[in-house]
What does this fold into?
Amino acid sequence: MNDLSDLDRLSALAGIESGWWDFFGQWRHVPDETKRHFLKSMGLPADTPEAVRSSLMRLEERPWRRGAPATHIVRLGQDAPPIPIAFPESTQHGRWRLLEESGNILTGEFKTSDLPQTGECWIDGKRLVMRLLPCPEPLEFGYHRLSVELGRGEATETSLIVAPTMAYVPDPLMNGGRIWGVSTQLYGLRRSQARGYGIGDFSALGEMVEAVAQLGGGLVGLNPLHARFHCQPDRISPYSPSSRLLLDAIYIDPEVEPEFAHVKPMAKALEDRRLAAEAAELVDYPEAALLKFTLLEAMYAYFREHHLGAHHTSRSKAFHAFVKEQGAALENFARFQALQEHFQKQADEMAWWRRWPESFRSPDSPDVAHFAMENAERIQFFQYLEFLADGQLGRAAAKARQTGMVVGLYRDLGVGIPGDSGEAWSLQNALALGIGVGAPPDPLNLKGQDWGLSPFNPLALDELGYAPFASVLRANMRHAGAMRLDHAMSLIRLYWVPEGNEADQGAYVRMPADALFAVLALESQRAHCLVIGEDLGTVPDGFRERMKAEGLFAYRLLPFERRHDGQFKRPWEIDSQALTTPGTHDLAPLIGWWNGRDLDWRERLNLYPRPEVAGHERHARSEDRHRLIGALVERGELDPLFPADGTLTPSQAGRLSLSVHRYLNDAPTQIMMAQVEDLILQEEPMNLPGTVAEHPNWRRRYARSIDDWSMDGLVQTIARHLSHDRPSVFPGKNDD
It folds into this structure.
C-alpha cells in the first residue's frame, strides 16, 4: 500500500524534495503550500485535489503519450543506453530516422518483437507497450533529432544529445601542469593616463592581459560580463543581470572604434565630466552610462548612414554576420531593450515586462513584431552595441592567445536572472517564474536568503532538449579559456523560494543532473573552455566526487579550507584538481579580512541577527588570525612574533600578502589566482553580502592604475614566486 498522498507523489515526480536538514541539525518539512506553489510554476496546477490528480496523471502518462523521451543522453565512450519507446500493441515493424546536427541523415528498420519489453499501459482505451530501441550508431558529438515510427502513421521525436565523457581540460593541466593568474573586477580597473569614462572597460582588460602575461600569469579572471538593464543603470549587480546571453555594453571603449573619429567634437564637450568620473573613487553608473551612450548613439548614427543601407562596406558585412550568428538571442534582447525603454518612459513601474500590456508580454506576439518594424533603428542600435562589445572582448581574448597564456580569459557565469529581466521575457517557457533562488537559513541569515533570481524549470528544460541551458553556456564560454560556474550545485539541485514568502519557507528541487553535466561537457569541449565549479556552501553528498569525474575543477578559498578542529589546512591537504585563491568578491580582501573591515561594516549597518553575534565574530576572527599565523610560521613564511591584533603597517601588510601567496603556491592545486585587491593591499570589500545600497557594492575602483600596480615591487616578487612553479607557457601547449 502506498501511504504517500497524491500531492507528495506529484511533488516527488517533479523533483521537489520533501524536506531538508538545516544548519542547526533540524529537519525542515516542506509545507504543502510551498509544494503547490512550485508545481504551479512548473506548469502543473495543484490548487485542488482534482487538479493534483489531473497533474499527476499527466506527468505519469507523459512518457507513454509522447512515445519517446523528450531528450535522451548518450556519453560517447560509454555504452549507449537504449531508448524507451511506447508502441501501440499491434505495431510489428518500424523505422527510425536520425537527423544529425551536421545535416547527415541515418535510417534504420526494426521488428518490435526483437526489442526488449519493459512495461505496458492503457491510455485512452489503447494498450501501449514500452520497448527498448538500441541507440543508433555510429554517433558524433552534438544535438541530434531522432524520429521513430510508432505504427498506424504515427511517429515520435526525441532530442538525442551525444556528449563527451568529461569537460575540456587544457593539455598542460591534463598532464599535471600548474598555472597562476590574477582575478579582477573589470569595473574597478584604471587605465594609464586616466583614459576611461569612470568605469573599467574592455581596453583596460587588454592592458590587464598584457600586464599579467608579463608577470608570468596564464589567465585573467573576471566578474560576470552579463548585460545589465540599459534604461535602469542604477541596477548594478553583475549577478542580477538582464541577460546572461549578451554582454554589458557599459564596458565598451568608444575611442577604439572607427566611428569615434566622427564624434570627437561631442567627446571634447564631455571631457571635463569624463575626467571627473574617471578620477572618482567609486563608479557612478548613471554618469558613466550617460557619457558613453551619448557618444555611442552618435557613433551608431554615423555607422548607419555610412556603413548600412545601400553601402556594403567590410564593417557592415561584419555587423550583419554578427547579427546573423547571434540569431534569436540578440534579436529578442534588442527588442526587449527597446520595449523596456518605451514603456518605462510612460511610468517607472512599467519597466517590468509583466506590467506591459498583455500583447507585449510574449516575444513571439504580433504586437512585438509590429513594434520591431516601427522601431527597427532603435533595435539595431542595441545590436550595434553588442557588436562593439563582442568585438572588443574578442580582441582582448586574442591578445591573451598572442602572449601564450595557457587559459587566457576566465569568465564568470551567474546562477540566474531576475524575473523582470530580458532573458526571463524571452525564455518564459524554460523558467519557473514566481520563484526565487536562494539558500536555506544559516547562523548569519536566520531566515534564509532569496536572491530574487528565476531558475530553469527542470521539466521544461527536458522538453526543450536543454537548448536554453546550452545557449547560456555557449554565450559565456565565448572568447574564454575558462569559465566559473557560480553555485555549481545547481547542476544537482537548487533551493527555491516561493515568491512573496520568507526564504525559510523554501525547499530543494532536484535538477536533471545527468543531462546538465552532459551538456556542460559538450559545450566545454566545443569551446575548449575549462570549467571551474563554485562548490561553496551546502554541498550535497557525492557532488564534489561527481565534479571531479566530469573534469570540473573545484573552487578552494583560503578562509574556508579548514581542518575539523578549525585550523587552516596545510598546503598538501588542499585538492589538486582545483583553483585556489586567498578570497573572492563576497569576502573582504586579505588585509581587510585581517583588520576586520567587513566586520566593521556589518556592525555599522546593523547586519547581525543579534547584537551579541558581532562580538562572537570578532573573537572568532582573532582566533583565525592566530591560526593563520601558526600555519604560516610552520611553513617558515612568517616570524612567530608577527602581530596578530591591531592594524597592520604597510610593510607588515605586504609581508602577510607575500606569505599567504607563497603558502597557497605550495598547495598541489593546479590553478592559483591572486586578486588585484590583495596585490595592492586593499582593505575595503568590493561587495558586502546582505546589502544593496547601504554599502558601495560593485562600485569600488582600484586606487592604482594597471601599469602602476603591475610594476610594484611586492607584485613583482609575488609573481616571481608563483611563476617559478607555475609557468605561463608549457612545451607542446595546445594553442587552440
Q: What stands out?
A: Residues 314-344 form the longest helix (31 residues).
